[in-house]
Amino acid sequence: MLALAHDCACEGELAAILATDLAAGRLPDMTALRARFSPDPASLPEVVVRLAPLTSYDALLSGAVA
Hints:
Elements: H1 2-8, H2 11-23, H3 30-37, H4 54-65
């Protein structure tokens, strides 16, 4: 639950739900909590990473040594 609260930035809301469950004598349902707080994969942005060619680093190193 700590990882869920941290990863999803839902500490306060999760604490309130847990307090309600415990006050009612219920154990927390991790499956339901994950479904409630985990992001919708369709709403996540697509990230494209373009790596610089290694020759760029060679040019930097040769310029720093000279």
